[in-house]
Amino acid sequence: MATFARPTFSAKAYAAFRPAYPPSLFRTVLNYHQQPASNGTLLDLGCGHGLIARYLRPHFKSVIAIDPSAGMITQAKQTTTDPAITFRQGSAEDLDFLPDGSVDMAVAGQAAHWFDYGKVWPNLARVVRSGGTVAFWGYKDNVLVGAERATEIMERFVYGFGEVAPGIEGMGPYWEQPGRSILRDLLRSVHPPDSDWKEVIRLEHEPGEEGTDETRWMCKKMKLGEVEGYLKTFSAYNGWKEAHPEAKSREEGGEGDVLDIMWDHMIDAVPEWKAMGERWREVEVENDWDPTIDR
């Protein structure tokens, strides 16, 4: 998570362009909890800009939300008015500030792939009360439904090594590992110890499958301009920008960075998008992600 913790990373842009979670996801998590939570405490690990903490707050008496990024915590505090939510800079690997058995539910949305589980599992076994719940969820890569060729091009630029276009290096080397690989494998390598956690359930979805409300919860129509903004929040893109300071984006007055060139290729691949000319960002497309939930 080092990229998100850097002063140059825009927590405001992250909050603006990252997809929100639908009510069906939170219903699934709360139904699994099956405990009266109104008097309990929720622990939000890797809380980011506070989206999950704010949504789940009505179901708990108090929420403790932590994130390693000072920028994320600042953004979360600026957009949260509920005094029952406490934001603090910190990591899932250091929960010494919490008493034993003080947490009713611990959650992590789009953060569990960063954790050092040699420390996190013992921490959670100590702070989550007997009968409490842990729920992790995440999503990896969005597919542009009905635009398979454009999706293939996006995949090449986002994960490619070496040249993906003349003079343009792909973003592949700039993903922080092993975190990204763990996420792309739908958190399958994340296994709660049997000695501490019972009744473990895993839900997965692959793009294009029918699924149910429990599994197909990351599907959203977005304008291409919104997809562009979302891709700019990728840690690998920010790493690529730092490694290629000479490659200024067109927004910055340059000739184009890796994402500008990627979109050129994607627009050329879809005649309907190309026909829109400079208005291509107004095109609406369905995005389907690969989500997973461990509870």
UniProtKB/TrEMBL annotation:
Keyword entries, A-Z: Methyltransferase, Transferase
Molecular function GO labels: S-adenosylmethionine-dependent methyltransferase activity
Pfam families on file: Methyltransf_11
Keyword Transferase: yes
All copies of domain Methyltransferase type, residue ranges: 43-136
GO biological process: methylation
Highest taxon of the lineage: Eukaryota
Family designation: Belongs to the methyltransferase superfamily.
Name this polypeptide is given: Methyltransferase type 11 domain-containing protein
